[in-house]
Structure formats: structure tokens, C-alpha cells
Amino acid sequence: MQEHLSRGEGDIADLISLNNQRGREHGVPGYTVYRNLPLCNIAPKVNSFDDLKKAGFDPEDIKNLKKVYTHVEDIDLFTGGKFVTKKRALFERRRES
């Protein structure tokens, strides 16, 4: 896949940044918008970077996210989703039930 990401000589893009940019161009809401939807049934709700820790995010990951995003609401859907493991998502759903 990486071989097909070049947009010209000396320009190699990465898939995550391309997905984030596509999402922004199409007006896809951020990670917290989807996570907090009642339909998703995921607890706890995330409205701050501190809430990410309560949601099971690694403190080092939160630190790195803070370097890139000013507000937790700015986290792109694709990026936020990359931090959610299947095991964590299942645990969160069971905990809320």
C-alpha cells in the first residue's frame, strides 16, 4: 500500500494523515462525537483529555494526542479509533450495561 501513496517525486504521505484529511474535507465529525453517541453505547463519555484516561487510554498516548490536538473534540475519527482496541470497547459496553 505504501508504494501507492506517493504524490510525486520525494513526497510520501502516510495513510493515517490521508484518512484524517479526507474526513476533514468531507466534514466527518471527530472521534468524541461518535464515541458519545447514545447509539454507540460506550462509557465513559469523553469530553476532556482526562476522560480519555478514564476510558482506558494509555497516559503516553494521551500526552501525544495533546501535542497534536488543542481540544479533545478535535481528535480525528480515524486517529481516535486507532487507539480503541476491541477488548477495551467490549469491556466499556459491558460496564455500562
In terms of quaternary structure, what is this? Answer: single chain
* Main sheet: strand order: 1-2
Low-confidence stretches: none
Count of strand segments: 2
Radius of gyration: 15 Å
Helical content band: 40-55%
Strand residues, percent: 5-15%
- Secondary-structure content class: mainly alpha
Main beta-sheet strand count, sense and barrel state: 2 strands, antiparallel
Rough shape? globular
Mean pLDDT: 83
- Secondary-structure element sequence? EEHHHHHH
Number of helices: 6
Instruction: State the end-to-end CA separation.
Output: 40 Å
What does this structure look like?
With 97 residues, the chain is mainly alpha-helical. Helix content is 51%, strand content 5%. It has six helices and two strands. The model has no long low-confidence stretch (mean pLDDT 83). A hairpin with a 2-residue loop joins strand 1 and strand 2. The protein has a two-stranded antiparallel sheet with strand order 1-2. The N and C termini lie far apart (40 Å).
